[in-house]
Amino acid sequence: LIKLKKKNRKAFSNIYNTMQISNDILKVGYNENIQSLAAKYLNISKSNFALRNVQFRIDLPKDDQNIYGWHQDNAYYKYNTLAKNGVIFWIPLVNANLNNGTLIIKPDSFNCDISCSFKKGFKKNQFSSEQILVKPNILKMFGKEISVDVNQNDGLITTAGIFHKSGINNSDHVRFSLIVRFNNIFSNDFIYKR
To answer: Structure pTM?
Structure first.
């Protein structure tokens, strides 16, 4: 993958995009254990939430092209405006640590709503990602940040509003991870979309 991206970015991008719709990747969101944990975290019945999406990330060594700055997941999809009504599972498929770019979070921001974020520019090209970042003046209010080491196939569970960013992968290996997002569709702040 590392050589492929250098040689043929379009082919690498096609692999990445295809993985987002792979049946085996999407099945992770319908795993009974993950759904039970999501329902318990949101304190609702499994029949009351929506699986927003399952994302497969490929973070190459020393590649900062698609690294996100400080952001909140609920600012991108806006199914629930309140952080407490969305839950995110971040599941690395390799041991994740500071060296290979594990998640960095501001733990005290777990209850922040989408008013904390703003859209910063647009996608530069087909290989870059749109950025919706936490407003700098609000980010300063949450000084403490921690890098979260997570073992392979374990997961970090947070609210959809927590401020977080990926670290840069300074290792020699690809960091693969899955992100699974659920939202409470019966809460007052749910915004219906199709």
So the answer is: 0.90
